[in-house]
Design brief:
- The strands form four sheets. Strands 6-7-8-3-9-10 form a six-stranded mixed beta sheet, with helices on both faces. Strands 15-16-17-13-18-19 form a six-stranded mixed beta sheet, sandwiched between helices. A four-stranded antiparallel beta sheet has the order 2-1-4-5.
- It has two domains: 241 residues, P-loop containing nucleotide triphosphate hydrolases (Rossmann fold); 225 residues, Rossmann fold (3-Layer(aba) Sandwich), CATH 3.40.50.300.
- Strand 1 and strand 2 form a beta hairpin.
- Helix 3 runs parallel beside helix 6.
- By secondary structure, the protein is α/β, with parallel strands linked by helices.
- The two termini are 41 Å apart.
- It binds adenosine-5'-triphosphate (ATP) and magnesium ion.
- This is Ribose transport system ATP-binding protein.
- InterPro entries: AAA+_ATPase, ABC_carbohydrate_import_ATPase, ABC_transporter-like_ATP-bd, P-loop_NTPase.
- It holds the Pfam family ABC_tran.
- One of its GO terms (molecular function) is ATP binding.
Amino acid sequence: MHDRQTFVVTVRGLTKSYGATSVLKGVDFSVARGEVHALLGGNGAGKSTMIRIITGSAAKDGGEIEFRDAAGNLRAEAEGRRTVTVVHQELALLPHLTVAENIVLPRYSSGLSVFDGKRSVQQAYEALGLIDRDFAACSLHRPVGDLSLHEGQMVEIARALSSGAQLILLDEPTANLTAAETERLFSLLRRLARENGLSVVFVSHRMKEIRQIADICTIIRDGRTVVNRVATSSLSDTAIVEKMGQLAAHAPTGTVSGARRSAPDGEALTIREEGLEMMLPPGTILGVAGAPAGPESLISALVGAAQSKRWSVSFSGWPQRFSSPHQAATLGAGFITGDRSQKGVLRSLPIIDNVMASRRVTRGSRLAGGRENAECFDILQALKVKAASLWDLPDTLSGGTQQKLLLARWLGVPSRLLVLEEPTRGVDIGTKKEIYQLIRDMASSGTIIVWWSTENAELLEVCDRVVAFDTEGRCAGIIDREELSEDRLADLTGMAA
Ligand SMILES: Nc1ncnc2c1ncn2[C@@H]1O[C@H](COP(=O)(O)OP(=O)(O)OP(=O)(O)O)[C@@H](O)[C@H]1O
Ligand SMILES: [Mg+2]
């Protein structure tokens, strides 16, 4: 062998077009055995497309892909692909099968093994237990369709971990995980890389995570490799953002930039549960932190999604509890769901309908012809969405760009309350800052914002106040901006990393 390192996969000059759109214009990418490698780039750069081609779920137009075994010998392409597994950006689980079946079934798909129920359940338990032992103990026989997004994400990761693959590609796996779960996943991946020679490719738009986990990075910009296999520690945050083609002015500064806004006048929204009362004057940005149980119950009450007796609100013209999401929307409570692929994006409707939906509901009609198109165009431009046509389907957009469609639906729509679940999930670093500003602007115009995020840095940057829930779903404290810190949040939520 000439190389000191063995590259389990090497991609050279990869090209791919969809119709007239050239997506990959000659990408180079290689992953060495036993390394944790961050694959970076702005929304629409081509990361997921390349991953789909490596795993064989999309065909390449040109270029080569080479797989090698642990000894450095070339493998046939089909055989090489069998040693690769992927956690997709959008969950790819079978809703009618149980958790255990979802985790182990892919192993039997080659037809070489015979399905063995009892053994499978044990294997699934071991895989899921690596991430969360309590969850594994009580969930193996539940149908996946009943799980929350966050639980589904853990099942998807467990499936990849238990596949015995040599290379694991994780396309934004931490978007729905809490800080503690992310930390557990990272230490597991690092251990598997070190001890078993597993190679890990990790896609994320969270700078802190990238630095925590990845030794090496590759940056793709507009379908080309602009940084190839460079030590992550040798690049500053600003340099990474610049290489991605995003303005240096948007580089994360690490400082708290959300100066207090002047508070608009008006009545406060009061949110109550037993022994707790929160008064939110117009223009407040309330952050919500913690494991999913608490935030989910608060949010479903605020958007009329569940008949929870736990929370009630008082606000003029509103009932104590909404009877349905429709009632909440027509009374001025907007909602951006965290489950963009199942509940958020309207898959069979064109981009323009996806963007204009809430405006049509609140206005009671659509604007005539050209005026609506022009408005939609302006909204998308503000969020830097490049779409070939407003009549394309959302599936032709990258993951982060689909997230921007959801935001576009409510940002700028006059509302009394806007509830956000992980609104910047998958949105690239440059655009995140602009979204923070758009949300601050809405608050300045009087909208009350309730914002659940699993990224504590984001809560620190944007919120006036944060309500923290512990792992049992109980309210553990309400912290004002002046007293906010990552440590404080980790303490209260019981999710110290
Ligand atoms: N099926 C498709 N039809 C047409 N265009 C597509 C299709 N799939 C992807 N594209 C285009 O390819 C480009 C790259 O998309 P890709 O999903 O690879 O980006 P990405 O780097 O993963 O971005 P993100 O960070 O937002 O996930 C985008 O401009 C997207 O619109
Ligand atoms: Mg993607």
